[in-house]
Design a protein that fits this description.
mainly beta, 10 strands, about 200 residues, Porin
Length: about 200
Amino acid sequence: MSSVVSAQVYSTDHQAGAILKIVSARMNINSELVSTSSTESEVGYQFGGFYRVNIDRIYVQPELLFSKIKTQLVFNDYNGVSGFNPLAQFEFNTLEVPINIGYRIGNLRLMMGPSFSILISGERSFLNEVQKVTSEYNRTNFMWHWGIGGDFQRIFIDIKYESGLSKTGESLSNLIGREFVPKQRQWVFSVALNLLRN
């Protein structure tokens, strides 16, 4: 009796390079104290690098990004003063570590995965006072994303939808002494350049 043992061979390749992202985010805040315009959203950008390993149709792509995002909110009848609606502005700088786990179909890709955020610095401006973020802020945050992308030779284009907790909501809690836990939902458009030649 003879037996034949066959080993399946997987094709692998690697890609790495620079990446730029534009972020458009929106928060849902159910409160009479704070209003958000239906036409306004948080806008920011991210840039950094990525590394991708492809194993047949499966791929894993971690990224390391610097992120800056700005937003503004209006306080309705602040401190009980009718018609007094001051504007609060927020800006946060973070280090983002998203991890994409995806499946390739030709030049198209489907992806999902976690994204970890580390607060570097930030400030809020309210009632002519600018205040830096302090150690009382949570330095880390977590989001989850889904998306679709396409590879066009050395150019990679992705569109992702992310959801998680908002750093602006935490700043609101510190500002007016009431806890806000708004969900943040954001669209991310990215363009990447592969610098490795296979």
